[in-house]
Amino acid sequence: MEGELLDILQKFSLEGNELVGLTQEGEDFQTGVRACENSIIGRVLGEKVINFTGIKNFVAVAWGYPKNLSVVELGPNVFQFNIQNSEDKDRTVEGGPWVIENQMLVLKRWVEGIEDYYKAFVTASLWVQLWNLPVHWLSREIGRKIGEVFKEVRDVVILQMGGKEGRHLKVLVMVDLSKPLLRGTVVRIAGTGKWIAFKYERCPDFCYNCEIVGHSERSCKERRLLGGSTDENQYGPWMRAGNIRVSPQNKNVRVSEHSDRRYWSFRNGELIEQEKNKMHGSQSLLDVLKATGSGGCSN
Asked: Which residue ranges does the record assign to the DUF4283 domain (predicted)?
């Protein structure tokens, strides 16, 4: 708020009552605070602006038609929701993920000023599938341990049915959407490393160049350089669970299910990522894990 005032003072030459202004007391805001204190603020992360009718219809269906639901549009992709029943409200805020038109709707309980604070909405829940697990790793304890690479683990589900791709675990985790989505993680055991691949359920659109949720390849400002030249995208639709599709923002994206171009080697029993200027002649992560008998990333 102080920064906004400073910008205005730098842009305009204020006179008279513009500069004198007025002073508000805390009790002046009580009516507005009471009207807001039980509300929910939602922000849609994405370049596509969702219209009021679209968001109202979506939340009514997704949240099970809560009684006396009201929706107020506060700005582009920012909305205020009022749900009278406290149980319905708690279930809505703690539930999700909520994805509308392939964009993430992040919900937070109202506190003063939160509607203007973008960083308050960069953390959201996502279901992540853990693949390439040995059968004796299919436990809640292992799932929770691997899920610790995310901000918070909320739940672990052991699927009883398998398929041609094998069995996997599901973890409900809190993800920092301001950072690149993780393609997987290396689990070290007995001096060797095993690659555990991640697939995201109901995953919102994200950039296949930098892996950040909320913008497309066309508007991405980051270019990743490998070996002195721009390489193909390091991320792609194989990170989505279920139907694989190319990014709607860039139909010409080059898709490869083995585009992990980071290079690794074992040194003194540890899995070491090679420096970029030493990549030539190094092995890919998949080759290293195969050579040690640790398996590879599942497709």
From this structure: 35-113
